[in-house]
Amino acid sequence: MDNASGSRPLEQRPGYVLKMVDAVLRTALTTALAPHDLTVAQYACLEVALRHPGASAAELARRAFVSRQAMHQILTDLRSRDLVHVAEVPHRARPVTLTDAGRQAVQAAAGDVLAVEERMVATLTAGQRAHLLSALYTCAESLTDET
Fold first, then answer.
1. 15 burial class (0-12, 13-18, 19+ CB within 10 angstroms)?
2. Residues 63/48, Cβ–Cβ less than 8 Å
3. 92-112 pLDDT, tens per residue?
4. Where is the HTH marR-type domain positioned along the sequence (predicted)?
5. pTM of whole model > 0.85?
6. Fold of 10-143
7. Residue 32 three-state SS
């Protein structure tokens, strides 16, 4: 049923559905990562650092979709567990690299993360999966400032 303002029901609004998917995906990933003693944000940081060795904390934050402040806390936690190394470079962005333990941690968790992602799209055909990804990228690009 439409509300008094005449807008579509929440279940027909893309933003609402995306938020619902985000919530259930995050719950599934949290469960999958618990045995690895990683949070979703920590896993994202490790995955991005694996793919972009030497990236700065600011770059990791952008690529992992978290604030710089959140990334600082994530890196502090991961450093205390010897999963990442942050180089001390005066007057420059400090490059972040995975330690051997960090590489092992992300590789051990990756299969469980991929299993969650596969479960999410298991009932979609290959064409539907391709269309879903294309549509989601188009949505993101539509909201990205080109400045």
1. exposed
2. yes
3. 788 999 999 999 999 999 999
4. 31-129
5. yes
6. Arc Repressor Mutant, subunit A (1.10.10)
7. helix
